[in-house]
Amino acid sequence: MKVSFPYMGSAIVYKKLFEFLEHEVIMPPKPTQRTMDLGVKYSPEFACIPLKMVMGTYLEAIEKGAKVLVTSGGHGPCRAGFYGDTHRNILKSLGYDDVELIIFDAPQDNWRAFFRNVQKIRNGVPWHKVINRMYTLYRFVQKLDELEKMVQKIRPYEVNKGQTTQVWNQIQEKFDKIKTRKQLYRVYEECKQMLLSIPTRKVDEKDRIRVGIVGEIYVVMESSINFGIEEILGNLGVEVERSLYLFEWINDNLVPWILRPKRFKEIIKKGQRYIKILIGGHAVETVGHIIDFKERGFDGIVHLMPFACLPELVTQSLIPKISKEVDIPILSLPIDEQTGKANMLTRIEAFIDLLRNRKRGKTKEVFIDNIQEHVQEERVVMV
Amino acid sequence: MKIAIPHSLLYYYYFPLWDTFFKELGFEVVDTGPTTKDILDKGSKAAVADICAPIKIFTGHVIEGLKVADYVFVPRFARIKKPEYFCPKFMGLPDIIEGTVEESKGRVISPIINEKNNENISSPKIYEMLTEMFGFSHREIRLAIKRAEEVFERFKALLHSGLSCDKALESYKTGRWEKDLEKVKKDGDVTIAVLGYVYDVYDSFISMDVIKKLEALDVNIKTFEMVPQKVAYDNLKHYRKRLFWTFSNRVLGAGLHYLKDPEVDGIIHVTAFGCGPDAIVGRFLQYESDVAGKPFTTLRVDEHTGEGHMVTRIEAFVDMLKRKKWAKLSEVL
Ligand code: SF4
Ligand code: SF4
Known about the structure:
heterodimer, A: 383 residues, alpha/beta, Rossmann fold, 3 domains, 4-stranded parallel sheet, B: 333 residues, 14 helices, 10 strands, FldB/FldC_alpha/beta (chain A), DUF2229 domain-containing protein (chain A), Dehydratase_Activator_Redct (chain A), CoA_activase_DUF2229 (chain B), Dehydratase_Activator_Redct (chain B)
C-alpha cells in the first residue's frame, strides 16, 4: 500500500512506523504556503487551521502517489473528532474515489472498527515482529525527543549562527536511516556527541532566558505553521521547551490511565486550578503547563492557538488572571491563514525584551497581549 | 438573597426551571432582561477579542447581574446526554467568567451539569452544591427541583405544540400557559424553519428579531425546539457518528426533520460569527438541503452586523419562496 499521513512535528517517526509495517511510504512534503493555499481552498471557511493544513498535506501526498492516508480520529468534545470525516467528504467530492482514508478513533468508542483498522495497517506482518518493532519505535521517539530538547538548550548559546539547526537536520537524516534498536542506540550516542561539540558561549545564569511553549497540539508541534517559533526564540538567545513532545504524548495518551506517568496527572491537576473539568483539546494541559513552567523557574510563556480554537479561547480568557496570580508573562498568539510572519516577529521580540528587563529587575510588569484586532467587515453573510 | 439569571445562552430554554427552583428555595430572582447595546459593549470589553458573540453577550449579562444581585447563576454545562457534550465554552463557562469578570469572585453559583441522560437537568445532586454554600437541606432541594421540573415539562409541552421559545417564555411569565396556544398562527403564505441555538435565534441583538421580521412578512415559523428530542435524533440515525454537541445534534436533527416536512418551504440557519460547532452543522445542513432540493440560507451575525442589510436579505429570501410557491400552484391549476 502506498501510505501517507498528516505532517506534524517529527514526521520521520510516522514514516518509520509505516516502514516497520512494511508499507511503501509516501513521505508528505513539509507544509509550505502552497499546502496552506490548497488546504484553505478546499476546506470549509470556518474550519480550524489545523484541519485546513492537513487537508493541504493530503492533497500534496496524493499528488505524490499516496493511495492510503492514515490518521487519528480523536474524540470529543472538540472539532478534531470530525477532521477525518470532513477530509473524507472533501476528497470524495474532489473525485479521489481510489484514495482510502483510515481513521483511528479511540478504541473504546468502537473496538471492532479499531481492530479492523489495525488489521489493515498491520499489513500481514507477524505479531511478534510488530510488537518488537513498535518497541523500537517507542525508543526511537524517546531518543529523538531527547536530542531535540538538547538542541533547544544549545541553540541560544551557539557561537556560529545556524550551526545547531544544521546539526539537527543532519541528526534527523541519520535517524531516518535507522532500522534496528542496536543502530538506534549507536546513532543516538553519535548525535549526542555532535551536539555537545558545538561551540557555545558561556552565559551567566542570571542572563539566561527560558520560555515555555504551550497550546493546541498542531500549532505547538508543527513548525511550518508556527513560523519555526522555537528557532526564532533560539536565535534571540532564548532557551525553549514545549509543553508537548511526541514521546510524552504517547505516554500520556496511548498508555492505559493507571500506567500513565505521574507527571501527566500532576499537570492536569495544576490545570484544574483554573479550568475545573476537562473541556476538550488541550486547554487544561495548557494551563497546567503554564503553572508547571513557572514552578520550574521559566521566565515567560508563549501560548499558541489556532484562531478561534474553542478550548484555547477558554484558556485565553484566563490568561490575564493566571499571568497575574502566577506572576509570569504570557504572550498569546492566535494563528490563522492571515497571520503574517513580520507581525509575529515584532511581537515576539517585544516580549523577549520585556522578559529581559524583568529579569534584570527593571520592570515588574506582566505583559499581556490581547490579540491583533481583526478587520471587522460587514458580517451578515447569506449564502 | 438575590440571584441574577443572565438573560442569555440557555436562559431561553431553562429559565422556567431555574426561576421556579430558586424561588421555591426562597431566592429573589433577577432576570437581567433582553440584551442591550450597553450589555453587549460591556461584555465585548471584558471578553477576549476572538470569542463568539454569544459568550461576549453572556459576559455582559453577568456584569449587569452582579450590579443588582448578590449572586449570579453560571451553570457549567458538561453534558445532558451520553456520549455527547456541550461546546467547550459551555464546559468552561464559569472559568471564562472568573477570568474575565473580576467582581464575580466568590459570587458565582455554578453547579456542574453532567448527566447521562436528563435533558431536564433535574437531578437534585446537580444542585447539592447549594447545600454547602447556603445550608439548604437535601429535602428542600429535592422538593424545589421537583416543583421546577413540573413547570419545565409544561413549558416543553408548549414548545412541542408549536409555540416558539420566546412566546412560551412569555406564557410562563404571564401565567397564561396553554391559553397562548392560539398564538400559533398558521395562515402565512410560506413556512420557514428557522434553525439555530436558542441564544442566537431569540437574542434580539444577535438575530435582530429575525422571527418577528419574518412574521411581519406573513411567514409561518418553525424552530428546533418544536421538534421533540426523540424525533430529532431519529433523523440522525444514518450518520456514521453523531456530532459531539447535544444542541448541535438537535439543530441538525430538526433540520433533517423539516427537510422532509412538506409544509416547510425553506430553511434559515442562524449562526453567530466565530461559532466552532456551527462550522460543521452549517455545512451538513447546506449539503442536506441541496440534496432535498429545499432553499437554504445562512444568517451569520455578530455584534457588528448592520440591520438594514439583513432585512434586505431575508426579504429577498421570502420573496423567492413565495414566487416558487406561486409558480408551483399555478402549475397545478
Ligand atoms: S482544539 Fe481547537 S484547533 Fe483543535 S479541533 Fe478543537 S477548535 Fe479546532
Ligand atoms: S456553540 Fe458556538 S456560539 Fe455557542 S458558545 Fe460554542 S462557539 Fe459560541
